[in-house]
Amino acid sequence: MILLTGATGQLGSATLSFLLKKRPADQIVALVRDANKATDLAEKGVTIRVGNYDDTASLDQAMQGIDKVLLIAGTDEDKRVQQHMNVIDAAKKAGVQLVAYTSRALADRHTLVNELMEGHFLTEDYLIASGLTYILFRNILYMDAIPQFVGPTVFETGIRLPAAQGSVAFALRNDMAEAMATVLAGESDSSTIYTLTAGESYSFADVAAALTSISGKNVIYTPVEKSAFEAQMLARGLPEQMVRRVTGFMTDIANGQEAQVRTDLEELLGRKPASLQEGLAMLYNL
């Protein structure tokens, strides 16, 4: 039995959808906060267990009879490391054979500006130290996040970000989900780390060029200073915490944290992952 946490979230639901193509529904368990949001999964034959990362009793119950767990990273910035530890502890207590975790593909944890990312590495450390067989899916920044980064007026105003000439090996969330489902559906008896990235790395100038090509509108990327960008974001009424998060991502991109390229994703998919232009055309429906 394979249990997926966060099964109604974007990455969890996509992974579960691909897993259903590789394993019978009665071998899949979805851990959800609200059973009402998982009625479609239940109708497909997926077992639904209700619980959350803070409720250790619900986690203990959810782990009964489970062989593998996919731990989708939580979104509570203040509590998620402890939440991840709760899941890992429950899995070990129940005799789960393997725990997989959705981490991040970053060059150097010790030089990160975006402090939010450190939680992934602390979770990795705890999982490795647990003695459980583990799989780490170190995922690159989703291509799906580009529209959020460049803003809704990108075709009129272009791209203005403090990312300098830094690049990212952007890959679609769905491609990563398919690759993870392939691993989970297979036989895994040893600990493994997969770094899931596209086959090449793209700058925001490349993003601008791709958007120009698919839209027919001239999109220009203009690197801006961090301070000017923050001031502009705050003037638009965005919360300070969100501004810090975005600038943290951009600074790390500028410093090369997201630029690494690996072949793991292509090998697991059995094909090349979507290119930047292909992915953006899908995301923008162009």
Automatic annotation (TrEMBL):
SUPFAM superfamilies registered for this protein in UniProt: NAD(P)-binding Rossmann-fold domains
Gene3D superfamilies recorded: NAD(P)-binding Rossmann-like Domain, UDP-galactose 4-epimerase, domain 1
Pfam family, one: NmrA
InterPro entries, per database record: NAD(P)-bd_dom_sf, NmrA-like, NmrA-type_oxidoreductase
Residue ranges of every copy of the NmrA-like domain listed in the record: 2-248
Domain of life: Bacteria
Protein name: SDR family oxidoreductase
